Amino acid sequence: MPRSVNAVASRARRKKVLKQAKGQFGRRKNVLTVAKNSVEKGLGYAYRDRRTKKRNFRGLWITRINAGVRQFGLSYSVFMGKLAENNIALNRKTLADLAMNHPEAFKAIVEEINK
Questions:
Q1: Most buried of 33, 51, 55, 97, CB within 10 angstroms?
Q2: Which residues have C-beta within 8 Å of that of residue 24, sequence separation ≥ 6?
Q3: CA dihedral sign of residues 115, 93, 76, 64
Q4: Residue 101: partners with Cβ closer than 8 Å, 6 or more residues away
Q5: Is 40 helix (H, G, I), strand (E, B) or coil?
Q6: Tens digit of pLDDT for each residue in 49-88?
Q7: How far is it, in rounded angstroms, from Cα 85 to Cα 107?
Q8: Is position 3 within any domain?
Q9: Distance of CA 28 to CAs 24, 48, 67, Å?
Q10: Which residues 6+ apart lie within 8 Å of 38 measured at CB?
Q11: Cβ contact 113:78 at 8 Å
Q12: What is the CATH number of the domain that holds 68?
């Protein structure tokens, strides 16, 4: 009985890895073993950094809110405490957007918590 190998599936598997490595430099894009290692490493970084991105954005929003409330003589922590006391449920993303792009609306929120 002749030897049977599934060349179609093998080639498809290799092409898939090389397609994922497209755009990389040197042997990473065209040598299978090097490309496979590079793609696996890249996918690991992508997984990790999807979570890191959330942390980074939260920090950015906090910085923007802090900069916005400093103009009114408050700190970030005092402002967030007063928001909670007054039952104003706005998340940091929304507050940061208001502080940057809609200062009059942000000022109204600050005046509301200072009553």
A1: 97
A2: 35, 38
A3: negative
A4: none
A5: helix
A6: 999 999 999 999 999 999 999 999 999 999 999 999 999 9
A7: 18
A8: no
A9: 6, 21, 44
A10: 21, 24, 28
A11: no
A12: 1.10.1900.20
Q: Which residue has the tokens 């970084």?
A: 45
Residue 65 lies inside a defined structural domain of this protein: yes
One DSSP character per residue, 50-80 reads HHHHHHHHHHHHHHHHHHHHHTTT--HHHHH
Both structure tokens of 30 = 């065209």
| One-letter amino acid for residue 52 of the chain | T
User: At 22, phi and psi to the nearest 5?
Assistant: -60, 135
Range of the domain at 43: 8-113
Whether the pTM exceeds 0.85: the reply is no
Long-range CB contacts for residues 15-19, cutoff 8 Å, separation at least 24: none
1 assigned to some structural domain:
no
**Number of domains, the chain:** 1
Q: Is 95 exposed, middle or buried (0-12, 13-18, 19+ CB in 10 A)?
A: buried
Token pair recorded at residue 47? 């997984």
